[in-house]
Amino acid sequence: MSRRAEDGGGRAQDDGAAASSARSRDVQTVQAVQLQDAQETRGVRDSKAVRDSRIERFTRAERYVHRVTATLMLTLIVTGAVLYLPSLSVRIGHRPTIALIHLYSGWGLPIPMAAGLFSRAYRADVRRLGRHSETDRTWLKKRAWRSERAHELALPVGKFNAGQKLNAAFQCGAILVMAGTGTLMWFPHLVGVSMRTGATFVHDWLALAIGFVLIGHIWFAVNDRQARVGMRTGWVTRRWAEQEHRGWAAELAADAGDEAVDRAARDEAGAREVGGAVH
User: Fold this and answer.
1) Closest by CA position to 110, among listed 56, 183, 58
2) For the chain, what is the domain count?
3) Same domain, residue pair 270 and 238
4) Would residue 253 count as lying in a domain?
5) Does residue 249 belong to any structural domain of this protein?
6) Are strands 235-237 and 54-56 parallel, antiparallel or unpaired?
7) 125 burial class (0-12, 13-18, 19+ CB within 10 angstroms)?
8) Of the given ranges (21-35, 100-114, 183-197), which has the lowest mean pLDDT?
């Protein structure tokens, strides 16, 4: 009797262990299915969000640098016109005050760009603006500045196209030259008459060239609503990025894919930890 009771107790323990193991496997199976469903749902949702989402083009620091620089540049243009054109100078008057405003605005123009270097995103964009590739040469050769021309040519344009890079290079160089020549004009005792005459010549004609370049810059901005929105708010639509800056959009998509893979790996690791605890 006792032996049969012991055999029955052993079988009961074996049955209980088997049932516990089966329940553990069922729990792990359910968790695996739930994880797979969650990943598939997230993938569909993320895919739709990627197509319809907006992406960041400029940070707050970059937008402030652009706004302050634009304000100083506009001030220089207005005060320079008053100082250069006799009709405006006579009508407005206060020439010494206008000259001081012009001088300090010119000296202050490099300050926001130098302050922007404290921003990591700004420094990254400066490096982008300084790199020229075969795509940029093709962009110029094929006249891809025309509306949607870059999209038709399927050029992998980066965050900035060749025109924007050339404009940035010209403006940076022109600002330094204008500051130097303007200083020589304001302090005539620093150099001789011939140097002052040359500085005045360069300052006047370079100011005219800057005016034409700024007109072109504004014209392109007026004809590209998303570009204006990006500079005002910092965000643009992904569709616009894929059409006008295909290479930059692909770079962002690759970064997003890497983040999604890392997130899925973390979710899977968490599910394994939960399954191990249940077991």
Assistant:
1) 183
2) 2
3) no
4) no
5) no
6) antiparallel
7) buried
8) 21-35
pTM of the predicted structure, to 2 decimals: 0.71
Q: What residue spans of 53-157 are helical by DSSP H? A: 60-84, 86-92, 95-108, 110-115, 120-129, 134-141, 149-153
CA–CA distance from 58 to each of 48, 55, 188, 230 (Å)? 23, 9, 42, 7
CA distance 136 to 134: 5
Of 222, 226, 251, 224, nearest in space to 237 by CA: 226
Assigned domain for 19 exists: yes
CATH of the domain at 187: 1.20.950.20
Structural domain containing residue 192? 55-244
Nearest to 160 by CA among 73, 248, 242: 248
Residues 6+ apart with CB under 8 A from 200: 181, 185
Q: Does 206 score more than 80 pLDDT?
A: yes
CA distance 80 to 74: 10
CB atoms within 10 A of CB 66: 16
Q: 105 and 83 share a domain?
A: yes
Same domain, 100 and 59: yes
Q: Is the distance from CB of 69 to CB of 113 less than 8 angstroms?
A: yes
Is 22 found in the same domain as 139?
no
**Does residue 121 share a domain with residue 68?**
yes
Classify 236 as helix, strand or coil: strand
In whole angstroms, give the CA distance from residue 241 to residue 250: 9
pLDDT band at 146 (very low <50, low <70, confident <90, very high): confident
Residue 44 is encoded by which pair of tokens? 């569909």
The reply to whether 251 falls in a domain is no
Query: With 60 as the cut, is the pLDDT of residue 96 above it?
Result: yes
